[in-house]
Amino acid sequence: MTSSLRGKTAIVGMGTAGVGEAPGFSAMELLGLSVRAALDDAGMELSDIDAVFAATSSHAFASMSVVEYLGLKPKYFDSTNIGGSSFEMHLLQASLALEAGLCDAALICYGSNQRTAGGRLVSMSEPQWHETPYNPRHPITAYALATSRHMHEYGTRREDLADVAVAARGWANLNPGAFARGPLTREDVLSRRMVSDPLTAGDCCLVTDGAAACILVRADRAKDFPKAPVYFLGAAGANWHRSIQAMPDLTVTAASESGPRAFEMAEVSHGDVDLVMLYDAFTINTILFLEDLGFCPKGEGGRFVRDGRIAPGGALAVNTNGGGLSCVHPGMYGMFLIAEGVAQIRREAGERQLDRADIALLHGNGGTLSSQVTAFLGSEAAL
């Protein structure tokens, strides 16, 4: 695989808005506020943006809606929507467009008012004709199937799943912007209401509002902006199915394909990675992705996360903002993986700041373990 994109583009602006609860704002208004924050962060004007990449859960034609709302006339635009991993794919697409000279400043953005609009945990990502007779509650029914199979094949325990949630809360308690903070024990997670056996409410992501946006330029301009550039090092995606009933193996996701290709493009090894940001819609996600991305052998994910290994002070820094389980999850979470990667690499993460944060792995998940996209960001020292 060619590594021609490595270090050729960089994020120079990052912004968030409405994280947690933002009553009175529409999804597009929150998106607009995050764009304004990203522009201010970069010291740019809206007129500087000439490419738009957007996906939302509330707009069928996301980039067109964003363009109209913001009053832009971009040279390049894209509305690829593969669920929560869309934004990691947008990093790759924006970098391709910038390197090809099709644009000069690319905006990637998302916004949702899922919580205050009265939204429930629902998913439009599943074709229903196969599952309808069984009355599933997607997406959680699908993730519960994957969890049950992993437990059956590898001896993974509900306690292991709970340890994922406890680790995420440990990080959230260091993040003043996290929605869910406070004590959380393994027993708390295990004793929560059972939603879809074997997953309790404590194994499920939050339902919040929130918006985020970032701005990318070519690397030759990256140092002209106020903040330290965060360079795009590489990315790859893989998609093997849409409906959970078509998943080839409920214990192996397409991250096992996207991960190796992204590592190759980024020219990094596992030992180089300082931060691992995983799309933790449910506790099983973290275990599956740690395995499929090569941080532990298949079937060892449950044992890998025990005893605080991915919590603050553990051997591997995973989801340092608190993740979708304790920080924010407004329908699609992928933009917030990017936001935390940028914060850590810029050394703007406050109490949760890692001692070394030069290379961040971001892994997005869409649908029901369907689309998988792995991306790498890095500091100047990583080039």
TrEMBL record:
List keywords of the entry alphabetically.
Transferase
Q: Which residues form a coiled coil?
A: none
Domain Thiolase C-terminal as annotated: residue spans: 237-378
Does the record carry Membrane as a key word? Answer: no
Specify the signal sequence span: none
Which species does this protein come from? Answer: Breoghania corrubedonensis
The source's domain of life comes to: Bacteria
Upper lineage: Bacteria, Pseudomonadati, Pseudomonadota, Alphaproteobacteria, Hyphomicrobiales
Q: Does the keyword Transferase apply?
A: yes
Q: What is this protein called?
A: Acetyl-CoA acetyltransferase
Cross-referenced InterPro entries, in alphabetical order? Thiolase, Thiolase-like, Thiolase_C_2
GO MF: acetyl-CoA C-acyltransferase activity
Gene3D superfamilies in the cross-refs: 3.40.47.10
